[in-house]
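User: Hey, quick favor. My workstation is busy. Could you predict this chain's structure for me?
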Amino acid sequence: MCAATTLFESAPYTFECVKNFKGGKAIFHNPSTPVKCGGAPHKIMYLATDYFRKHGVLPKADVQYWSGVGKLFAVPQYEKTLLEVVKRGNIKLNFMYNLTEIDGPNHVAKFVGFGENNKDQVEEVVFDMIHVTPPQSAPDFVRNSSLVNSAGWVEVDQGTLQHVRHANIFSLGDVAGLPISKTGAAIRKQAPVVVQNLLDVIAGRKPSATYLGYTSCPLVTGYGKLVLAEFDYNNTPMETFPFDQSKERWSMYQLKREVLPRMYWGAILKGLA
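Assistant: No problem, here it is.
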């Protein structure tokens, strides 16, 4: 058995699992909670499937995706391409299931359905490899405070990022109760809004800046291939480049690999971008 999670320390071990997989059932899991990037739990699946293909293992692999949400990706324009990637890898999709238990010695994962058509349906799946993305939440000191909504995230206005009950509190990033992925790209657009609105409130004015829900998810679909998804609260694309970003592109893969890390460390963290 090979089991890995999406923790930083697990990345080298995850690759060992992928390299040592010689066939059988490979499970990739996505929780029902918000995660750092909505596409992250299946990006590793696409890379692994591409690796299996390159090394002649894919015909012997039964790749399955078990997800706690109702579709592969929220934005239809991008999901259309991802479904083709799934087809290319012969990946079986299972939606609206929570992973409730893993029996390591017997290589069994237990999933319980909670959708309209699979409510309380229990599936026990024997696996040879499993990749788990743990359920995620705000830190306990936030989640157990009086600032959060029923889901445990700081309850803020989606546009101004001001708390709905406490006018002197703003929130952004990982703990904010916003209906988007908690990506660095989102925080980059949230920070100027919070700064402007803080200055407005300090000066006795109403918040004047609005966050439209922009987020970005660079979806690696294989070695040398990437779909750059950029969209807002309404799942409407907000694309940067003058071409169809829903297509797999080598150029966008190079953007992710070479440009974005330098932009992040050299500009974003310094407040220059």
